[in-house]
Amino acid sequence: MCGQNVIRSVMAEVLAKHYFGRSLYVASAGVRPGDNDPFVEAALDELGLTIGKHRPHSLEDLEDLNFDLIVTLAPEAHHAALDLTARYPVEVEYWPTMDPTLAAGGSREQTLNAYRALRDTLVDRVRDRFRYAAKARV
Q1: How far apart are CA 118 and CA 43, in angstroms?
Q2: H-type helices in 7-74, by residue range?
Q3: Reported pTM
């Protein structure tokens, strides 16, 4: 979960599905929906991945809120998830994650480098966090 479900949470969802397939149920959301970001697709394409038909949505748009865990990637999302846990028994983890739009420079390559850095950080975090959880379910 992140602010707008257009960069960080989308990448994390695609990566989790790629590495863990059907062994984990994964869905991403934002505090509020935004518009797809083309640099996300470009950074994922370098790994042979795509966001597919993803359309940004908010947590309330998800069909099912029976999650065991919500991983938040932005302060705003973390606060919203903590508010949600007052009504649902869900564990919340906060992974402070940079917003590549703030770190991006002026050129296309500088911007793409910021998105690559985010992608690589999320690859490591997702693989490390869910490696054993996925094995336990198989």
Answers
A1: 9
A2: 8-20, 38-45
A3: 0.90
Reported as type and span, the H/E element at residue 79 is helix 75-84
Which candidate, 73, 58, 75, 80, places its Cα nearest to that of 122? 73
Neighbours of 29 (CB within 10 A): 25
Q: In this predicted model, which residue has the larger pLDDT, 22 or 97?
A: 97
Count of CB atoms situated within 10 Å of the CB of 44: 20
In this structure, are residues 117 and 100 in contact, taking their beta carbons and an 8 Å threshold?
A: yes
pLDDT at residue 138 tops 90: no
Q: What percent of the chain has pLDDT over 70?
A: 93
**Do the beta carbons of residue 76 and residue 98 sit within 8 Å?**
no
Q: Which of 96, 115, 98, 95 is nearest to 107 (CA)?
A: 115
**Chain centroid to CA 127:** 13
Q: Do the Cβ atoms of 11 and 118 come closer than 8 Å?
A: yes
Q: What pLDDT shows up at residue 137?
A: 44
Distance CA 135, CA 97 (A): 26
Q: Report helix angle 8-20 to 38-45, nearest 10.
A: 30
